[in-house]
Amino acid sequence: CHGGKGEGGVGPNLTDKFWLHGGTINDVFKTIKYGVPEKGMQAWEKTYSPSQIKNIASYIKSIAGSNPPNGKSPQGDPFEEKTENTAAAKDSTSVAKN
């Protein structure tokens, strides 16, 4: 449904930064597990274990930006991963500013 390289087919492109149902790993997991029946995507919760769904979701996240040929046009909203500044959180000499 999403093409051999995630480029999209009947389903959306999984390699761009656009997501129809949220782009976090949890969003992707839920979309796989419960499906999107109104869009024709089946639920996979009876076929795959939670661990298998986690691996599938992780794979989908790993192909982001791979730009396969003939990618389907973007659908949904752009999504950017949020990153934390963990260096400041780990630095005990750092003082929080209120």
Structure, described:
With 98 residues, the protein is mainly α. It has a single domain (1-72), classed as Orthogonal Bundle (Cytochrome Bc1 Complex, Chain D, domain 2), CATH 1.10.760. The protein is built from three helices and two strands. The chain has a two-stranded antiparallel sheet. α1 (25-34) packs across α2. The mean pLDDT is 89.
Strand order of the largest sheet: 1-2
Number of strands: 2
Q: Write out the CATH superfamily name.
A: Cytochrome c-like domain
Structural class, judged by helices and strands? Answer: mainly alpha
Elements, N to C (H/E): EHHEH
CATH topology description = Cytochrome Bc1 Complex, Chain D, domain 2
Which strand-content bin applies to the residues?
under 5%
How widely separated are the two ends? 49 Å
| CATH 2nd-level architecture | Orthogonal Bundle
Cα radius of gyration in angstroms: 17 Å
What's the number of domains? 1
CATH class: Mainly Alpha
Low-confidence stretches: none
What overall geometry do the principal axes of the alpha carbons give? globular
